[in-house]
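ingest -> validate -> predict -> emit
validate: passed (alphabet ok, no gaps, 187 aa)
predict: started
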Amino acid sequence: MTELSDVTRVLLGWNENGREALDRLMPLVEDELHRRARGYLEHERVGHTLQPTALVNELYLRLIERRQASWQSRAHFFAFTARVMRRILVDHARERDAAKRGGGVVAVSLDEALDVPIAAGVDLLALDEALERLAALDAEQARIVELRFFGGLSAEETAEVLSLGVATVHRRWASARAWLYGQLGPR
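emit:
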């Protein structure tokens, strides 16, 4: 409980002293960020060049640039880091595909992709594009997918971040998964 209150206290003081707050925050959240980064990358293709530490380091560099923030809790912070890590992973996939167009992509079902963080061979670019289309239709469902899939947040944490009921998160998560399956599933 002390760690959570320390994290929240540091986050609330971000706007007054951003870099100093970040330096105090990182030791409190670094293990959790590494755990999440490992989860994102553990099912990636063999020989993947992005390592968990590199993902956390890139996140840190992007946090340094952040001057203002309105995080109210640990869950809000991890929701933000989920979005940033998603962007980092998608950017990395784009760079990889630019160097090697279309080679070696393994098809997996959407259920497999959404049940584990970034399952082996998931086409992150296609998932990102589908999430953008979903966001145009229903921004809240897209945000739920982002928080659950990329952020590794539980339904309860997602409900807290979005100020929704847990049952609502479960329903919208199921609906979003079905929609994404229609977009990304076998044709």
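The CA atoms of residues 40 and 187 lie 26 Å apart.
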